[in-house]
């Protein structure tokens, strides 16, 4: 069991305030890399350690399986719950699925629909539409937006009009597809539930009071990470979980809302203290992830946003030592950009950076191909995250079908019996003990091994899992396009990179039409601002090295057809050059102050009046005894150390 000292260790005063806030509503509004996830895990530890809740009464939710896994592993490392008595940290979908399995009425069978596209295609044909794969994808995401926003087929046309939804077919045709799709799910022997239905039905079941009482006696403390990503339907489920209670901690960054096209909205985050006037509100602005150079760029990009809601004006203050200035690079065409990036990656790897500490991030998955080719040619290992995805591979599809069939026959108890049945099912597909020869067999073998590692991870997290539950858990991850971690340089879309961090990040293809993407430019300012937030998310993934590249044409035909993204207009990539304090206008002599854009006094005044006056008194006292010039330098060094909360090195003070 951790004690309070251990729980608070490595937290700054604001983070500690969030951890120690009394039971009840807490909202942490904070920028990227400020330690939100660290803070909420410590708060959970404190609530348990102080006896306010039992581990099994805590439900922590987030939006991606990777983020939920991250929460679980950080909680495990805090050692707050005894074995078999762990805190539930899950995605909204997984929590809803678990709840449905428990409360679902007997005699009514249902199945999880993990691929909705074929059913949407059938519905589109039924209403007489001719679709392409692109329009089908758009129809599917339109249905997801509507369901996430609590909009029924009957209400769709009115809402889509108000929201100005850009759809491949007229709004009434989309509504007809939506309606047909919903009816088709209720048509067969089983009820089919898609991912949004899990959330909808879980909320509905709690409306029946005996379920609600049962559920609420089990869970007494709720925590939501990345709260800016919540959709109205998920918010409704969260409210159903809570009932009249208010033991809820939410953490989020409105500047990282990048899923509003899918119905996510930061309004609940920004509105939190209005809905919970007694809430403890904590703002964090110290960025522990990135160098001051990266932080400065992030601040400039997000600071230039045209429209700011109150509560989003959060300036990050970098805490790490200085690093390299973000490097822009313009190329004549796409192949040159890909080769240039691969060459730079090779350079980093040769200088000692591990490939798994490097990421190449782009706007759309189609952009990955040229970077894959260039990296292959350069002999650098890589993995593509979140695109086609792993679960769409033929051998994985086959494995999932075989596992489902096996689960239908048996419902074995867990642990070793399940870590054995899975292996027996996968063996005929090519999961041998030793690596096979030949590229095709080897690729299959690697995929199956990766699937096996996901299975092991699930069983380690939730021991006692039956095969049937394991299969639904895998289906959930498939639906969330979870690509298991592998070694090598990560290639990912900006969306898929959220919440992750690497030593070196390459933001590529930074042209108008890509970032912001053409469709967003066509839709107008609001959509362009979402693209700006996406760019901000990309920048803030870098711990140290940040490369920004773009190319002026697709192929080397000689004519520039593109231009650099507007988000870099007027940006100073080298903050060391800017010379005046943005608060008081004083000239910035100290390099540290130049990077931060604020003189040391202004940085300290933000934080601690008494320290400033103590230091001023100290300066006046020394000025009488020593040379003024030397004293000014010493004082600046000390002020910097204090402003940044670094320990003061007595030798640097030259006493
Ligand atoms: P994001 O918005 O990208 O999700 P976040 O706010 O959740 O970021 P974390 O991932 O919790 O940030 O923290 C970012 C990094 O800073 C992590 O490596 C974390 O361990 C570290 N960190 C957090 N708080 C502190 C602290 N007080 N002192 C030192 N390091 C810290
Ligand atoms: Mg986080």
UniProtKB/TrEMBL annotation:
Matches recorded under PROSITE patterns:
HRDC, UVRD_HELICASE_ATP_BIND, UVRD_HELICASE_CTER
Record has Nucleotide-binding as a keyword:
yes
Residue span(s) of domain UvrD-like helicase ATP-binding: 9-291
Please report the stretch or stretches of sequence annotated as the UvrD-like helicase C-terminal domain.
Answer: 292-544
Domain of life of the source:
Bacteria
What are the protein's UniProt keywords?
A: ATP-binding, DNA damage, DNA repair, Helicase, Hydrolase, Isomerase, Nucleotide-binding
- GO terms, molecular function: helicase activity
Q: Where does ATP bind?
A: 30-37
A single Pfam family it belongs to is UvrD-helicase
Q: Domain HRDC: where?
A: 605-655
Q: What class of enzyme is it?
A: isomerase
Q: Which segments of the protein form a coiled coil according to its record? A: none
For the keyword ATP-binding, the answer is yes
- UniProt-listed Enzyme Commission number(s): 5.6.2.4
Q: Which reaction does it catalyse?
A: Couples ATP hydrolysis with the unwinding of duplex DNA by translocating in the 3'-5' direction; ATP + H2O = ADP + phosphate + H(+)
The family note in this entry says: Belongs to the helicase family. UvrD subfamily.
Name it. DNA 3'-5' helicase
